[in-house]
Structure formats: structure tokens, C-alpha cells
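Person: Please comment on this record:
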Amino acid sequence: MGHVLFSPLNWGLGHASRDIPIIRELLARGHDVTVASSGNALELLRKEFPECRFIVFEDYPVPYSSTRFFLPKFTAYLPIMMKALADERRNLARILSRDRYDLIISDNRMGVYSKDIPSFFITHQLRFSVPFFLWPVELATLYVNGYFHKKFTGIIVPDNPPGPNAISGKLSRSSFRVTNIRTFYSGILCSTKKMDVREDLDFLVIISGPEPQRTKLEEIMLSRITELPGEKVVLLGSPRKNSFRQLDESTRVYSYVPTELKVEFMNRARFVISRSGYTTMMEIAELGKKHGLFIPTPGQTEQEYLSRFYRKMGWFLSRSQYRLDLKRDVERAMEYTGFPEMPKTEENVRNLYENLLAQYLE
């Protein structure tokens, strides 16, 4: 059977998490999978798929700041990222020279493609969101994305087609033909599955994302979570650690839990508090959760856009970590409706394989 090189970006755990069902489907169909990544993303997939082969493959430096001023730092990072992209191309050439692959799947790594091997790029951002006064920059990102998209055989967008059920809003829409002719809307893809369990956990808090903001949110939430009544679980999203502590008789804190236990907690939760990262949003949609409070990473324009979009649609409340009043915000969040019904991951990943990937692996 076919041999797939799968390379997720290591900016938080979101990219690796949404790739789990695709890797699981490929393995179930009898294919070999080699994962090329780094950091926490690599560690997560090692734990999930010990039968796979793994290659340490560094990616780009994370252009996040300890402040909310993301764009200036991102602009300053561009030369560094361009060098990292050139390094990525050279390192990929070395990887491809050592083994034979039938398919390459890159999750948001722009340089992981080959002109000789069918290559697919996973992204929910066909365009980026920036502040209104910088709209020419947003327009320019369509051109930049189109330039990179044409290097790939196809673009896999883990969202519903544009319309009322598209949970990434404008981010998954492009007006460029070079992008649109390559785009396959797979529907939501996440590692979380619906379970037949009681919702007996009052609050689940998921701390995730790149440093240093992940740690900042951890500090904020651990200082306030005991204000909320009922049974509470806090997941810190640090797979390199393995610790547990009890803040009080009804509040448990885990540095990291296996995917199976995280899935159980999410199924049991009546209310979810987390960043508004897109992977977490797909998990919320997969489970049909109707109550949550989202806290966008400061300066992370995608999460800030999704927060505004969901509030406008009446789906979920979001709140800045700088203005968080936990008890009050939880009460207000109960007034929102949650996402509309949509096809789930099991159906979506099967269709993705049968309608797109299989033709390159048989």
C-alpha cells in the first residue's frame, strides 16, 4: 500500500490534533505513515500512533508576543520565517532522498511539497483576518496564499463549504481561481468523538496554544477557576509533563491527559472554557456542545476574528483575558445557541479518503 509523509506545523497542538483522524484513516486502510514534525506536535502524535515512523523536522519560529501587539512582531519575523522556509525546503529534500513516498500531506507547512509527489496542504485559512484599517494587507494575503497554493496538488479545508454552516466564516473563502480549483472542503475534522455518557462535569477548562500566552492563560484561570461552582477539570496542554494536582475538593488540574481521557472530559462537560482556536471549535461542533466561553489569544488575529464572528452569529460568547470576569461571563454565555448541526468527522474523513486521497494511494 501507499507510503504517506505527514507533516503538521508545531504552533500549539491544534494542527496535530486535527490530523489524528486522517492518520487513523490512512492506517486503517493499510497505508504506512511517516510523521515529520517537532516539539509538542511530534510528542502528541508519537503517543497516539506508536506504530508510525517519526522524523524530527523543525518548522518556523512562532511569531507570538507576550503582549497583545501581534502584527508588529509578525512583520519583524518575516525575514526569519523566509529563512526558515528555505531551510524547510532543504530539509525536506533530504527526507525525500532517504525514502520513497507516494503522497505528502502538509498541515500548514508551506514548504512541504514536491513537484514529483502528489502534495496536499491542510488549512482552514484561505485568507487571513487583520484589523480593518489594514485591509490592503488582508487582500495581499490572498495573493501570497495563491502563490503557495499553486505549489500543491490540492488544498484540504477542514470546514463545511461556504455558507451558514461554515464555522471559519470568511477565513475559508477565496476569490482566487488558483486556490478555488484546488480546494476540497472536507467538513470538520477532529480527534474528539461523541460518547454515550452523562454530562456530569460542570466546567472543563482547556489551556492550549503557543507560549508565552499559554502560560499566561494558565496563570489567570488557575487563580479564578475556584470562583465557579460545581465539578471542574483544568487541562493545561503540556504533553512533555505528566502531573496532577487538586486545587480544592471540586477542582482537578492535569498537565496533560491522553486523547481518550480528554474526549471523555469534553463529552461529560456541560460548559467548556478555552481559547477560540479553530481545532477546539471543531471539537465543540463535533460534540454538539451548546455552552462555552472562549478567550482568544491576544494579538492572534484568527482567534480574535472567530470570536467576533461567533458573537455576531449568536453562537458563543468570547471575552478578552484582560477583561475576564469569570462568573459574570459564564452567566452571559448561557444565552448563546451553540453551532448549528453539521456532518461529523467520521463521515467527513471517510469521504476525504474515498473522494480525494485514495486515487493517489492505490
User: Anything to note?
Assistant: The radius of gyration is 20 Å. The CA atoms of residues 146 and 176 lie 7 Å apart.
